[in-house]
Amino acid sequence: MSSIGTGYDLSASQFSPDGRVFQVEYAQKAVENSGTAIGIRGKDGIVFGVEKIVQSKLYEVGANKRLFNVDSHVGMAVAGLLADARNVVNTARDEAANYRSNFGASVPLKMLTERVSMYIHAHTLYSSVRPFGVSVIMGSYEVDGPHMYLVDPSGVSWGYHGCAVGKAKQAAKTEIEKLKMKDMTCRELVKEVAKIIYIVHDEVKDKNFELELSWVGEVTGGKHQLVPADIHAEAEKYAKESLEESDESDEDM
Amino acid sequence: MATVPDQAHFSRQTMNNNLVPEWLSAEHSTGTSIMAVEFDGGVVIGADSRTTTGSYIANRVTDKLTPISDRIFCCRSGSAADTQAIADIVNYHLNFHKMEMGEDPLVQTAAHIFKELCYSYRDDLTAGIICGGWDKRSGGQVYSIPLGGMCVRQPFAIGGSGSTYIYGYVDSTFKEGMTKEECMNFTANSLALAMFRDGSSGGVIRLACINEDGVERRVLKGDEIPRFFEG
């Protein structure tokens, strides 16, 4: 439900008469305009996939990645304003490093998510800063299994088995819901994630895109890494073939 | 009176006469015997109960086994003030940590925090600490954090001034896979021998057993303390 908040949308320190903070909602719109990012939590790990829209063929391949490492065991996929996202990633890295320095162990994802949420939320309280125009999906593989959380520009976070953000998030969510994620391993999920990104990508509006894939789980020994080139290629091939086989027309949002 | 150069403390007004006893100005120390032993399912920790200021026994029933969380204790040796302050700070940090994590802290986390403090302030502190406890991830664990601030996990650890007299005894008596009762006896015997020989250790033997079900404390006093050759 979008509406214009004239008069009450000039700063994040203002509520509208119907109890909304419009600046935060506008920040969420910035996320909705960016390329889709999805994360799926399987039986033994997490897989991230990002539809990185490439504006020009002149760009270097692989530049401006949207998948980041926050400490060796935590990965982050971002959607929204990339510069804002980098700020959030750096903060998350600081928090994880501080935790390790203070307690001698890797930060549990639940705690890291809380700290990132608080940081993002802090930027929705004052008129002197603007909210971050990013949603971040964080995932890790810990002693008690895989975990995944989504934080949106308002600072609220949720734990997920499968989530999507960005322009095609509705279509992506529909595809994700069809999967039986809890029983699938990372290797199986990599192919499905690639397929979903290809399905939801809009050929008409955004010509060129790069598929980014990363995972963290038992297959990587608990470390977050970009998916190796050969598995990436195999997943892309599977995705393209599935697209050709299916009779679905490309869904518009 | 000779100064001890490696102890960087606030200046002592050492009296050069015999009219005022030395203990009026000496620092409180837990010249001590402390010990901790791991077994399958928990740890046994023990300590003597003597606190001295110089040669005066300021407290003959001290409790040197300090809880820093529900299932993690520390045995304190060295300066009483320093170790009490450190234990309070670690307790504070662990409380926060427990609230944020939503579950009980790990023994290795507690040991790490002890180590951070003891190492960062190593020039200002005299604290030899043994951190022992139980957590659900790794069971019973004993970590030794001696004077310089290193931290190492050991199957058993001894510390304090009295420990120097029992290295031979513990090395020859310890064996892997002891039961809880055997660990209790091992600890009680070792501490008794240390207390007998070390002038700065004595009083009663305080023991505690920490496992999944909680903490069980005991005191051995008088003729409950094991006796060996007494010359």
Structural overview:
The complex is a heterodimer of chains A (253) and B (231). Helix content of chain A is 35%, strand content 23%. Chain A has 253 residues and is α+β, with helices and mostly antiparallel strands. In chain A, strand 5 (134-142) and strand 6 form a beta hairpin. The radius of gyration of chain A is 18 Å and the shape is globular. By secondary structure, chain B is an alpha+beta fold. Helices cover 26% and strands 31% of the residues of chain B. Chain B is built from four helices and 13 strands. In chain B, helix 1 crosses helix 2. Chain B is globular. The two termini of chain B are 33 Å apart. The relative contact order of chain B is 0.20. Mean pLDDT of chain B is 90; it is low at 1-15. Chains A and B meet through helix 3 of A and helix 1 and helix 2 of B.
Overall geometry of chain A comes to globular
Strand portion of chain A: 15-25%
Unreliable stretches of chain A (pLDDT < 50, length at least 5) are: none
End-to-end separation of chain B in angstroms reads 33 Å
Main beta-sheet annotation of chain B: 8 strands, antiparallel
Residue share in helix of chain A: 25-40%
Radius of gyration of chain B: 18 Å
Largest protein interface? A-B, 9 and 13 residues
Oligomer: heterodimer
Unreliable parts of chain B: 1-15
Report the end-to-end length of chain A measured between terminal Cα atoms. 15 Å
Strand order of the largest sheet of chain A: 8-1-2-9-10
Total number of beta strands of chain A: 10
The percent range for strand residues of chain B is: 25-35%
The number of strands of chain B is 13
Tell me the overall shape of chain B.
Answer: globular
- Total count of helical runs of at least 4 residues of chain B: 4
Structure classification of chain B: alpha+beta
